[in-house]
Every structure is written in structure tokens, then in C-alpha cells.
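Z., the sequence and structure:
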Amino acid sequence: LMPNLKYRGQWMPRRIPNPAYKGPWVPMQKPNPHFNVDMPLAAVQHPISRVVIDIYDRDSGAYFDDIVIADDLAETWRLVTDNIKRTFRAEALFYGIKERDDASSDEL
């Protein structure tokens, strides 16, 4: 190999001084009176015993509708069944299906 006599080291761009430079950009911070800090999940004092994930499986694929985190099984089950009933009633209204009159319509 032949040495390159014109080599002056690694190339660096020229620095042009900018007298108006004020330092790195920082976004403007405005106070938001409606902002509430959410309690982080790690700060919950009692242990979480139930996690329910409501998954719908459609022709276009599965998607998550609701995630319920609770410590009471009865309350969790009531939330999930109420949500399923609401969904079925909304679909029945959309497709024009009449709801059954007997008491078994509340049972899933």
C-alpha cells in the first residue's frame, strides 16, 4: 500500500458560530388545571386476586375489549356478564333480532 500524503485524519464538518444559540431545545411547559395524577398500580395496598380479559373473536381476528383488575370474584363476574349482556343487546338491536321474553335471557 502507498501512503496518502494528503490524508488529514477523519473528516469533520466545519463549525459555524451561531450567536443566537440558546442551548438545547426544551418544550414549553404550560400548567394544566385539569390534569390528575393517576395512582400507580404498584401503590395498591391490597393484593390483586383476579384479572379478567374480555376477548372478542370475530372474522377479522381477536381483539381485547376490556381488562378488569379486581379483588372480588363476585364483583368481577358481575362486571364481565353485564358487559357481555350489553354487547349482545347492542348487536341484537343492530341486526334487528328481538329479545326473548322468558327469564332465561338473563342467563349466559
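The mean pLDDT is 76. The longest helix spans residues 73-95.

Let me know what you think.
H.
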